[in-house]
Write a structure and sequence with these properties.
The longest helix has 35 residues, at 246-280. A hairpin with a 2-residue loop joins strand 4 (149-153) and strand 5 (156-167). The protein has 397 residues and is of the alpha+beta class. It is 49% helix and 16% strand. The protein is elongated and about 80 Å long.
Length: 397
């Protein structure tokens, strides 16, 4: 009996029953709550906050974290969920990634027990939303050049600076803000101006988040400019563990992992749409799928999708085994997003003129993936990470 024609390599056989259940459950959620509405969200530039309870109920917020109400699912299950969410829209996967892989991960990895108990249960249920404020107007790929400061004044920290492209900041309840910390009474890491993380309730005076508009990509999502104008925090607002850029980089690795899976999901959705359209659209007396040039496009896309899925699954297995290395995450993020953009653009050509409408997903995916290609490390950054691994030479500066 013929199986799924999109599963060229029978990858279904590589998944456990639990992994298939997670995938199918998230796919059903996307079919019910995302697909019927996402074109309008994208057209109107709206992030659907009423979707958050559904994501929380499905256990998707911090789903790969353990304890504090988090689902504690495997890396592969998390990846499969990200693929299904991004098959719906990159903006929806971005929400789950910012909430879980960045903000919640930062608190879980670097926070105190009190901080974890204060925020993680509420974030897992969607009752609190978080954001992750690392990038600045002049410090994107080079976070070491950040200028945001945190100065110890008596029993308080005072934060000043600007951040840019901060997902969810305008709707967040808490921001994980990275700043250069200085404590006149401390000559150790904080006193030396080392990068530290701080938990900033967004209701704190001096914290202002403004959505960036207009955008041509990730329109069903929120990215913001953030101003920190002498934001005063208690002494215990600092994340106590892992000072330095290793702190945010550990969170970025989690987000990049999810992106590799998400991009594969977006690509598969584009192929699915193109294949169905080619079978239904009749020209010159035959369906488009019967023409050699169309078949060549479909085959090229199917090969790219299969390779992306294999790569995502491989790094997922490595991550579950505790063996995943940063350069491997870079390889998957770089390769899969590149492939997904190519698949989305090719799928649009199969759709002809109808492909530019929001009735079909490929052009929306292509636009979104331009943002995904840029955030959590540009092509250039990941290329240099891989170049360093191959040659042993640092070429960033």
């Amino acid at each position: 009996m013929m199986g799924d024609p999109l599963d060229l390599l029978a990858l279904e056989d590589e998944l456990s029953a639990a992994e298939r259940e997670t995938r199918d459950r998230v796919r059903a959620l996307v079919d019910e709550h995302v697909r019927p509405h996402v074109a309008r969200w994208f057209a109107d530039g709206v992030f659907p906050l009423d979707l958050v309870p559904h994501l929380a109920e499905a256990g998707l917020l911090g789903m790969h974290l353990h304890g504090h109400g988090c689902a504690g699912r495997s890396a592969v299950e998390y990846g499969l969920a990200m693929a299904e969410l991004e098959a719906g829209d990159s903006g929806i996967r971005t929400f789950v990634s910012v909430q879980g892989s960045l903000a919640m991960s930062a608190i879980a990895k670097h926070g105190s027990t009190v901080q974890q108990e204060r925020w993680l249960p509420a974030m897992a249920t969607g009752d609190a939303i978080g954001c992750f404020a690392l990038t600045e107007p002049a410090a994107g790929s080079d976070p070491a050049s950040m200028t945001t400061t945190a100065t110890r004044v008596g029993d308080e920290w005072v934060l000043s600076g600007r951040k840019r492209w901060i997902g969810l900041a305008s709707v967040a309840d808490v921001a994980v803000v990275w700043a250069r910390a200085s404590d006149p009474a401390d000559e150790t890491a904080a006193g030396a101006g080392r990068v530290r993380g701080f938990l900033v309730p967004t209701s704190t005076p001096g914290f202002v988040a403004t959505p960036i508009e207009p955008k041509l990509s990730l329109r069903a999502s929120l990215q913001c400019d953030v101003v920190l104008d002498d934001v005063r925090l208690p002494a215990d607002a600092i994340l106590p563990h892992h000072p330095g850029l290793a702190g945010p980089f550990a969170c970025l690795a989690e987000a990049r992992y999810g992106i590799a899976w998400g991009a594969a999901g977006a690509a598969r959705d584009c192929l699915d749409v193109a294949l169905r359209h080619a079978g239904e659209r009749v020209q010159f007396g035959r369906p488009l799928a019967a023409f050699q040039l169309t078949q060549a496009k479909l085959v090229d896309m199917a090969l790219e999708v299969s390779a992306a899925q294999l790569l995502a699954l491989r790094i997922g297995r490595l991550k579950d085994a505790g063996r995943l290395e940063p350069h491997q995450v870079s390889a998957a993020k770089l390769a899969n997003v590149r492939s997904a953009i190519d698949v989305a653009r090719t799928a649009r050509t199969v759709l002809g003129g109808d492909g530019i409408t929001l009735e079909h997903s490929p052009m929306r995916h292509a636009a979104n993936l331009e943002s995904v290609r840029t955030y959590e490390g540009t092509d250039e950054v990941h290329t240099l990470i891989l170049g360093r691994h191959l040659t042993g030479h640092q070429a960033f500066r």
